[in-house]
Amino acid sequence: MTTYQHIQANKRKTAVLIFLFVLFIIILGWVFAEVLGYGSGAIVIATIFATATSLIGYYSGDAIALRTSGAVPISKEHNAYVYRLVENLCITAGMPTPKIYVIDDPTMNAFATGRNPEKASIAVTTGLVAGLENEELEGVIAHELSHIKNYDIRVMTIVIVLVGMVSLLANWFLHFSFFGGRRSNDRSDNQLGAILAIVGIILSILSPIAANLIQLAVSRKREFLADSSAALLTRYPEGLARALEKIDRSNIRPLASASPATAHLYISNPFGSEKRSFLSHLFSTHPPAQQRIKILRGMA
């Protein structure tokens, strides 16, 4: 498969996942509305609440991520090597140079944040700069710049809004179903109503888990997309493949500033490499390193 085909395939998969997510919420809302008799108003209210809380994170998330990671800004005079690598790749990609930060940590990792290319930042650890060759570091930086260019923060914000809607709907359903809803006597006596009530309770328990699984699946697809975009930008997928090998092999211990809230931003799981079972893969923000490496080395 060519690099362009990988990029298009990952974009399609992301779109399909988000479509299924929206369809899931519509079905969930319909079941809850039928059981409680509240109509579509609950979905509207949940959308407003989830969007409002997610927008706060959207506009302040980059500052929070940089602050919690202990990232320190650098200039061309302070670290010409890293600065010029980022600058040259941005010229090639036709995008503005983001603010560049360094995290003083021997662990090899990096992340990008920002809601658009004009308001973006990229951070690399000192361990990453010291441990990678020029072409390998270039591949990692190209991966992070691709996240910015592909508007991945915006995509993930949309997904987080959907996750928030599911959580709110599930919580409200459990609250009103046990503490009194607007169900009529006819509905409660109706066999279909009883079946829907059972389905509603099951959905209210399982739907937040399903929502998180979809969120993590989208996150993994965006990692594949950033890998493919980075390979296209550098025209050398082997550089990123070798970098991922070194990162996966060396990251035995977690990043000192690792946080579950920002884990999905990093190029590699900041809590350290681990053996993956099928279940742990489902609940991971990142695809397995070996799978990413194999795809990169198979690109034409």
Automatic annotation (TrEMBL):
The active site is at 144. GO terms for molecular function: metalloendopeptidase activity; zinc ion binding. CDD domains: M48B_Htpx_like (cd07340). GO terms for biological process: proteolysis. Keywords: Cell membrane, Hydrolase, Membrane, Metal-binding, Metalloprotease, Protease, Transmembrane, Transmembrane helix, Zinc. It is an enzyme of class 3 (hydrolase). Binds 1 zinc ion per subunit. Residues 78-299 form the Peptidase M48 domain. It is a multi-pass membrane protein. Its EC number is 3.4.24.-. Its cofactor is Zn(2+). Zn(2+) binds at residues 143, 147, 223. Its main location: membrane. It is found in: Cell membrane. Signal peptide: none annotated. One of its GO terms (cellular component) is plasma membrane. Coiled coil: none annotated. InterPro entries: HtpX_protease, Pept_M48_protease_HtpX, Peptidase_M48. The chain crosses the membrane at residues 14-32, 38-59, 155-174, 194-214. The keyword Transmembrane helix applies. HAMAP family: Pept_M48_protease_HtpX (MF_00188). Belongs to the peptidase M48B family. This is Protease HtpX homolog. The gene is htpX.
